[in-house]
User: What shape does this take?
Amino acid sequence: MMFLRKVSGPAQSLTERELVLPLRYPIRGYGMIAETMAEKVKEMGGTIYNNARVVKLKSLLDDKYSVVVDKGDRQFELSGDYVISTIPIPNLVDIMSPDVPAVVKECSDKLDYLSLIVLYVVTKKNNLLDTSYVYYLDRPYHRLAEMEKFCDTLFPKGENMLAVEFSCHRGDNIWKMTEEELLEVALPDLENDRILSRDDVDKLFVVRASHAYPIRFVDFRKNLDTFLDYIDSKENIDVLGRTGEYQYIDSDQCMDRALVLADKISAKLKAN
Assistant: This one.
């Protein structure tokens, strides 16, 4: 038996967030949120560059910035009043110009991330789990999620999908596995737990995230604070999100923080 003390606001525990909060899911998947935001940005005159990589972040005079963008076939430079970074901290430090102090570089390089692979198994079998998702400690995967439990409009009628999540490190054996190889790793336990058998599998898809979870080593706080103190010493630049802030926070918390930061930037720009 587990008793939960009711807490509201940002102090909610992980247990409360996982078990108590109501779950609402977009009818065409989580990507609808990003797509809708992109539409609003374009409606307001903003420009979004897809399939582009920032290779240099330059500090200019008057606390302004420019970024050098690589689109594969060409590079170009954009300037702006404010920079918000959501990329991994070591990657941000590597592209900053002028170079950051050596101690900041050394500390940021120690802030590593765990990678994530999600194997999506398409099946016609329903009610695979008793809940929308389950965490595991003694399986090759760390979480299973039955997408039908989130929303039954995510895929064609008569189909269901099981998300099998693997934690790994970039470049290791798990990271390099194909969809079929990942299935072979997961299948013995899926069959033993009577969730899925080989005959239930129709199709496979895979998604990989190289910087999914911050790894909190013993000295992470010292290293993170050294980096954040440096960012705080600079004008008109902020870090944001799970990857950018090196915080294990959920997507709704990321959006809340983004709204707070947007209000802060808006007020600052209006004041100037």
